[in-house]
């Protein structure tokens, strides 16, 4: 579903990603670990076509089509979606109105109820929301669009124990985790610092991003345990 080859990206003249390779198959969920400043969020924003992320080399393909030069809206129409770690607040746009625009009227009510956001229907988007409320708002927007490729930037950060269970259930639904991988039409890439989301969403492959490159990969729980024992730099040197 997603192929990234030799991707080099700069922001304001500074190289952030350096000759990065990544391959994610249909039905697969990948989790990305790495220290702050390693380029994790930059990778997601580059995949989604954010301006300001200048591609210096390499290519990206989504479902067999070269998306390297496509704008954000075309990538979204193709089936890519992203939930931000720190999304903006938008004055004048009500959460309920946004969900209505993106989905049918019946679906919008069901989506808000499922994510315990019915009381936020008339609230301006993310304005004054807590960390957990923002995560649920982002997931409500993804549920309304049902993207083929789901990118999640630290869905487990700033979320309490009650909300993380709900967040995990919705992500499982988005990624079709309750059906065999061979029959899934969706795939996902999740950034996580703590790995808490893995208690609710089983990832198929883990990757360590260090200094702008994928340094190693493996079974997610094993890779996370290695990071806890050896640290990011130790894992990067091991290069399994």
Summarize the structure in words.
The protein has 240 residues and is an alpha/beta fold. 34% of the residues lie in helices and 29% in strands. The chain is built from 7 helices and 12 strands. The protein has helices spanning 40-48, 72-78, 95-102, 105-114, 131-145, 161-174, 220-238; strands at residues 2-11, 14-24, 29-33, 54-62, 65-66, 80-83, 90-94, 124-125, 149-153, 187-191, 205-210, 213-218. A 6-stranded mixed beta sheet has the order 6-9-10-3-11-12, sandwiched between helices. A 4-stranded antiparallel beta sheet has the order 2-1-4-5, covered by helices on one side. It is globular and about 50 Å long.
Features:
240 residues, alpha/beta, 4-stranded antiparallel beta sheet, 7 helices
Number of strands: 12
The low-confidence parts are none
Helical region count?
7
How large is the radius of gyration?
A: 18 Å
| Helix content percent band | 25-40%
What is the overall silhouette? globular
Strand content: 25-35%
Largest sheet: 6 strands, mixed
**What's the average pLDDT?**
91
Topology as a string of helices (H) and strands (E): EEEHEEHEEHHEHEHEEEH
State the separation between the terminal residues, measured CA to CA: 24 Å
The order of strands across the largest sheet is: 6-9-10-3-11-12
**What structural class do you assign from the helix and strand content?**
alpha/beta
